[in-house]
Each structure stands twice: as C-alpha cells, then as structure tokens.
Amino acid sequence: MTLPADMIERFKAIVGEKYALTDPDVQAAYLHEMRDRWIGHTQLVLRPESVDEVAAILKLANETRTAIVPQGGNTGLVGGQIPHHGEIVLSLNRMTNIREIDPVSNTITVEAGVTLQRTREAAAEADRLYPQLLPSEGSCTIGGNLSTNAGGVAAIAHGIARSHVLGLEVVLADGRVLNNLNKLKKDNTGYDLKNLFIGAEGTLGIITAAVLRLVPQPRAVEVAFLGVPSAQAAVDLLGIAQGRAGSDVTSFELLTRFGMECVLQHVAGTRDPLDASHPWYVLMEISSQMSAGLRDVVEDIFETGVERGLVEDGAIAETLEQSKAFWRIREEVGEVQKKLGGSIKHDVSVPVAAIPAFIEEANAAVIAAVPGARPFPFGHVGDGNIHYNVSQPEGADKAAFMAQEDTVQDAVFGIVLKHGGSISAEHGIGIAKRDRLPKVKDPVAIELMRTLKAALDPNGILNPGKVL
C-alpha cells in the first residue's frame, strides 16, 4: 500500500507533526516483532493522545479506504500488530491516563496505552489487586492485552483478560465511538457488545479505554517450588492443592528439568532451589485474604504430595527475595530458548486431565518427525495452557530446522485436536495461525466471524489479513 503525499499530510494533521513518525529509524521500534520473526514496513506511524484523535483517524481512513494496524506495547507473538503490507500503524502508547480508581466498586478505568505494570501499581496504591500477570507487564498495554485476550500465570484463579472487563470504550471502523464504560456487574440490556472486541485483535474496532475489575489485595502469599516425577504427578498434585485451598491457588506452573538446566546455565544469578534434580517441577503460589494459617495449608499440600508419591522434594519460600528467585526461573524459561538456536513454538490448550497424555504423545511425534529435536514444554497446568515449544537438535542448522515448522506444527496440532484442545490458548491468531484457523474451527463459527467483520468493517481497513 502506498499513500500519496497529500493523504499523509491529512493524517499527520490529526495528531500533529511531532506524533506522526515518518523517519524509518524512528519507526523501527514499531515494525520489529519481539522475536524478529516479522519485520513490517509503513510510511506513517500515528500516535494519537485521545479517543477523539483515534476517531478522526479512523473516520478519514474509512473514507479513503486506508488500512490501519493498531498497536499497543508491540509485545504480541503472532504478528498481529505488524504492518505487513505498508499499512499505517496506529500506536496507542500515548493514551496513558488512568481515568478513575473506585475501590468501593472495585474497578479501575484506564486508557489503552497504560501498561499492565502501571495498572497493577495503581490498583495496589488503592489497596486492590488487578489480577492479570504477564512476564511482559512492564511493556505490554491494557489495550493489547484485551485485544488479544491475554492469559498469564494467574488465570487459574482469576481468569484471562476477558474475565476482568466490565466496560469498554471502542472506536469503530467509521470513527464512531462506542461508549460502554460502565462499572456494572449486572447489566442485562441486550447483547454484551464488549466481548465482540476482546480477543478480536483490532479487526472489529480499536479499544481505547476499559473499566477493569479489581479484587482485594491478598493478606498472605506462599510460594513453593516442588520437584515431581511426572506431568501426571503435577496434575494430581493440582487436584490436591485445589481441594485444600480452592480458588486461593493463584498459580500452578509446570516446567521440565531440561528447561530448568537451560535457565541455570544461561541466566546469571539463578540457582537450583532443590538439592537434587527432578524430571519435572511445579511452581505453586497460594494467596489468601486470611493473614494467618496459609503456611499450614501449603505444608499440608506438600506433605500429602510426598505421602502419595507425587512430590519428591520441595522448598517453600521463606522470604520475598526467595519467592522472586523461584518466579525468576519460571519467567526466564521462555526467553532462554533463544540460547538454544531455532525454536518452533506452540501456544496450545487441552483439558487439564489430558495434559500428561498430550505432552507424551507430542514428544513422541516431534522426535519422530525431527530426530534429535528437543521438546521444551512448560506453562499453566491449572488452565490447561501448555507452551509446547521445540528447540532444534543440538548443533543443527537453525534455518534447516525452522524450515520444518509446518511438519512439526502438523504433528503437535493434530494431537491437540485429538484431545479436544485449541491451537491458540492466549497469544491469539494474528498472521501466524490465520491460515490454520479455518481447518480447526467450526465452519459455522468461521462464517459468523466473517459476517461480523463485514458488518463492523465493511471497507476492510482494520488490521486487514489478521485472524481471517
């Protein structure tokens, strides 16, 4: 797509010369995806400050049939935020107002460019918790989180992004503004329109603000790092933990010994929390509104796990620093794979009960397809979301390995579907899984999605080529 000079000037006039970026060097931060898998190109990056400016941009774009790619913190992993065909980038990172915190109603109203970290900090200042937590919290934004329906490590207790939203402000393709910023937990007045835009990746409208649900700050938090003999033992231990602590189980993360060794080898300052090595590990966090007694609950879970042969060894954090050290191991697992060469990544979900069988079958299928490949599964046991990544064989050529991505994905996705799972648990579809979506989703669902797209964006200007 090539824009004439006079059209560029019309768009620039909406946000002002300073916030209309045309210098390729300045644009680079908006065009490179985190893993450099996709690098986009554009003539113009627009950085509006208000919903009125976003509305004016979309009104002009719709009238002139100019394609727009909305972007938050540019932390997406499926290429949905990148302009692949020269579209205008509409970055929301100047929309950073926290419009209101209402601790009585347990809500916070924020603009789309507010980072997840700042949202959590603002909630904490009001003695509340915004319960979504992602490793990229310092750079990912609320608008991006909602547009991709992001998950995170606390979804087992609090749900994914959709679960936190009470109301939205959305600019439609023609520039109209849907003002649905209510704080109501009960509003049974017809279609729940906000859910059309959550997870739509900017293809139906651009989220500019949201009313988010807060919860009370926990008064006690306990973190345990446990060595377990198998993925099945981890799932069984989860049942014990939820039986003892219910929804107070706020995180239950799984990683392999291979993943642990990679972190210990490549991330300075990390150390093994346990004396001996174990095939698998569970990082468990339990939090409560009760200020006393939580340690006893965690110790009971630990001891029951040992008695039933589900836990081989473990450590319960004694200090905040130790808790952070446990969490750092988990948080570095995704990044450390870069040190191993090529990595073919899968963000999938299966029913929790199917996790052990899925991992075992996927491991066998991947190694059969690519001898020497190193499966690298980790993730969120509590909600069935496994990041089933595959690292290249040791010493292999990275390009040759990555050329086998379709073969590996066919094998993994086939097993995911066999177990009634999803090929995208929390990262979205973007461009990475766009062509696979019609093969795995109900045909009527795809037809309805296309109908919605045509109705809300008849000129196809919003993030074209993504999702559908």
Automatic annotation (TrEMBL):
Keywords: FAD, Flavoprotein
Cofactors demanded by this protein: FAD
Gene Ontology terms, MF aspect: catalytic activity; FAD binding
Gene3D superfamilies: 3.30.465.10, 3.30.70.2190, 3.30.70.2740, Uridine Diphospho-n-acetylenolpyruvylglucosamine Reductase, domain 2, Vanillyl-alcohol Oxidase, Chain A, domain 4
Coiled-coil region list: none
Domain of life: Bacteria
Gene Ontology biological process: respiratory electron transport chain
Family (UniProt): Belongs to the FAD-binding oxidoreductase/transferase type 4 family.
Protein name stated in the entry: Hydroxyacid dehydrogenase
Lineage of origin: Bacteria, Pseudomonadati, Pseudomonadota, Alphaproteobacteria, Hyphomicrobiales
